[in-house]
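Contributing new records

If you add data, match the layout below exactly. Sequence lines come first and carry their own label; structure lines follow with theirs. Keep one chain per record. Anything else will be rejected by the validation script.
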Amino acid sequence: MSVKGKAYIAGIYEHPTRRAPDKSVAQLHAECAKGALEDAGLTRDDVDGYFCAGDAPGMGPLSMVDYMNLKCRHIDATDIGGSSYLAHVAHAAEAIAAGRCNVALITLAGRPRSEGMATGTAPRLGNPAQPDLQFEYPYSPTVVNMYAMCAMRHMHEFGTTSEQLAWIKVAASHHAQYNPHAMLPDVVTVQDVVNSPIVASPLHRLDCCVISDGGGALVIVRPEIAASLNRPKVKVIGMGEAVKGQMGGNVDLTYSGARFSGPAAFAMAGVKPSDIQYASIYDSFTITVLVQLEDLGFCEKGQGGRFVADGNLIAGQGKLPFNTDGGGLCNNHPANRGGITKVIEAVRQLRGEAHPKVQVKDCSLALAHGTGGSLGTRHGSATLIMERE
């Protein structure tokens, strides 16, 4: 059963807070839900499907459905890290096409900043009995040095430079200056990035994303409901998911799961990378963006450094405007699963609601992609292609 065009994104909301010491995670989820439903012109009583990941407190959707007093006949708690919320859009579209629900609510929220989480530099602890951790656990791997390992390998294989990676941060900062909620609104230069302190060689502090509180929400609906709402119509036309791990020891750090999820999404949508007018790309680190751009087909493998250089990702200047809200590198990165903001900004672009300084002219086709987990060990990938009707 094809689900192309069977679901529409009717409501979006990004929480304006970047620090919320006075709010609970559940409260942030509820506030995001309220905002997205109001944006769609719907109410809590219309919701019959609910989706969230591991950022939700308690027992995930069971706790949140009860907390928000929803009446649901379908729930989903898929958790594949930063790609979770792109997968949720795909799963919501599939559930709607199958008649499992009519109005799907998707919420994310977190307080890592208020809770003092050192997301990138603290060891990622786990149970050493886990099959995917037992050989790594004694070395206490951190997120940032797993990504730095990928950056170092990419540099070795293809001659990628720190200056080329820095252009990704520069582009994000050019966009963030127009976002009143961005944590890092100041425009930076290539030299600012490469002169910032090394966190894990070759990644500098400004190669890393921010850590913020906040959240977001999406409302996905049946076509008939979308037609009844007084909102711009954005439909999901392509989706793909993949997992990349250690592959039985056949490790290649130069590519990501986007190599698999991207082609699946493009095939379903019936479009090519060259057709995409705007791209929301998960940006936990600059290297994350570069590798994903290659794997999604926007440039050849190994050519990412050249592709991102000289402002090619800056709206109004380059070939592929990306993360026009400032992304995780400059705007926000809540709950370690910031992929929902990639969908939100893509929908803004398709609606023509992005900031006028970064709005892509006549934007009708956009891509959002998320990576969740660790680029250097195992991660999930999810790709969405959306179209303005």
